[in-house]
Amino acid sequence: MHQRRLESIQQFGGKPLDDDLRVDLTIYNIPASLLKQFSQNVVQLYYPGGVSDAIKDLIRKAVIEKQPIVAQTT
Fold first, then answer.
1. Which residues make Cβ contacts (< 8 Å) with residue 57, sequence separation at least 6?
2. Residue 57: pLDDT above 80?
3. Cα dist from 26 to 7, 23, 30, 55, whole Å
4. pTM
5. Could you tell me the residue ranges of all domains in the chain?
6. pLDDT tens for residues 41-56?
7. How many Cβ atoms sit within 10 Å of the Cβ of residue 52?
8. H or E element at residue 18
C-alpha cells in the first residue's frame, strides 16, 4: 500500500516543522480488534491518507497538548 506523504513543511504548535528526516516505526502486540476500531472510528472518518497520517497527527497533537504554557511578557 502506497502511503501519501505529508507536506514537507508542517505547522506544529504554530511553528514550522521540517519533516525532511523521517524514521520508520514498528508497533507490536496491538490487538486486532483495537486496530479495527481505530481504523473504522478514526482513520476512515478523519484521515483519508490512512493509518500513518492518523498516527502522525495524533502524535503531534499529544506533543502540543503536553507542552508547558509559557507566559508571555511584553
1. 47
2. yes
3. 22, 10, 11, 12
4. 0.62
5. 24-66
6. 999 999 999 999 999 8
7. 16
8. strand 15-18
